[in-house]
Structure formats: C-alpha cells, structure tokens
C-alpha cells in the first residue's frame, strides 16, 4: 500500500493504542503475513534482522497467553497477537543476508565475503548483553513499523511489554537463541483508543 506524505502523517496521528477489539473479526493469515513482510523492511544493525515473530491466532492459545500477559483483555479479543522476539545470535544470519544481497545483484562476491566475515567477527565477539541491546533496539523499529502498516490498512494495535517473559518462553518453547520483547495485539477496534498528549517540543528537542 503506497502512502503519500499527507496520508502517512494521518496514519501517525490517528494511531492510538486500542484495548477493546471486536472478537468476531478475523484477519487472514495471508494479510498478517503481508503486514509482517512489509514491517521487516525496517532497518537493522548491519542488516542482520535480529527478529522472529510468533503469530498467535488460535483461541485456546490466546486464552493461555492472557494468563501470561497479566490478564489483559485484548490478548483474547484481538484478531491475533504478534510476539516479537529478539535474536541474540544475529551473526548467524550474516551469510544468508550477504548471499541474498549478492544474488540480487546489489554487491559483488568480494564485498559479500567481506561483509559476512566482518559481521560474524564483530557480533560474535560482542557480549550477550550488547547483542541483546542491539536486538531490542532493532525489534523496536520493526514493531513500530508494523503498527503503522496495520493502521494504514484499517486495523488497530496495542504493544504490550507487561507479560511474564519466562512463562512465555516456557509455554511457546522459545529456544535460547531468542528472547521475547513485546506482544502486539492487532484487530478491529470495538471502542476508540484513549487519546494522549505529548510534551512540548521545546522540552524534548535541542537545535545546535
């Protein structure tokens, strides 16, 4: 879906966190896949794309997830909950990423080899804490992009960081390589989201 500058501004201004959803409205797997695919065009550190997604649509799974997510109603009533996971071993993506760029004709073979070797060396030598911070930052970018894409398609969302991450890992069998960052409920609003205000620009911006 192509957006003009004006319509993008409208999407940004009209996106609010919605917690009341029509439980009978279902978004197709195909459309959810399209939105996630568009969202993954977000930038990431060295283009290593340190994210994974678990899309939870099944009614029984959503009921279980609600108990893990502090009994938040939207987990169960939204069309789906998209769990965004971070990848602590993103350097393992380097070869695939580099080869895809080479096969697409974007880089030559020497550049591909240099990029792969450089990324593996740099990120594998970083601490787990640093890699976790990088993946968390990049997951924030892809998550925000996903929410704006959803709004542009007429859907509403709410991001949720308030859930028991260890219980999520255990229930959904998340491997040690990944860690849950945020849950995003998506669906058709049954009630408007609560509007909020923002701090004055001069309190958060300095021009030098």
TrEMBL record:
Domain of life from the UniProt record: Bacteria
Nitroreductase domain residues are: 12-188
Q: EC number(s) in its UniProt entry?
A: 1.-.-.-
Listed A to Z, the keywords are:
Oxidoreductase
**Pfam family, any one:** Nitroreductase
Q: Which InterPro entries match?
A: Nitroreductase, Nitroreductase-like
Query: Where does the signal peptide begin and end?
Result: none
Please give the family membership noted in the entry.
Answer: Belongs to the nitroreductase family.
- Which Gene Ontology terms cover its molecular function? oxidoreductase activity
Q: Report what the protein is called.
A: NAD(P)H nitroreductase YodC
């Amino acid at each position: 879906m192509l957006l003009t500058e004006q319509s993008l501004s409208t999407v940004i201004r009209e996106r609010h966190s919605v917690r009341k959803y029509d439980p009978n409205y279902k978004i197709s797997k195909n459309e959810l896949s399209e939105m996630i695919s568009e969202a993954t065009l977000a930038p990431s550190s060295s283009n290593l794309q340190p994210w994974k997604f678990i899309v939870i649509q099944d009614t029984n799974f959503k009921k279980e997830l609600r108990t893990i997510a502090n009994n938040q109603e939207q987990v169960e009533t939204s069309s789906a909950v998209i769990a965004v996971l971070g990848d602590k071993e993103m350097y393992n993506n380097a070869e695939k990423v580099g080869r895809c760029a080479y096969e697409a004709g974007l880089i030559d073979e020497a550049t591909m080899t240099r990029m792969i070797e450089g990324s593996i060396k740099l990120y594998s030598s970083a601490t787990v804490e640093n890699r976790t911070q990088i993946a968390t930052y990049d997951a924030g970018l892809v998550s925000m992009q996903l929410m704006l894409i959803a709004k542009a398609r007429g859907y509403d969302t709410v991001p949720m960081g308030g859930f028991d991450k260890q219980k999520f890992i255990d229930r959904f069998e998340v491997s040690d390589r990944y860690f849950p960052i945020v849950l995003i409920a998506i669906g058709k609003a049954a009630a408007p989201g609560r509007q909020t205000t923002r701090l004055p620009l001069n309190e958060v911006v300095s021009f030098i």
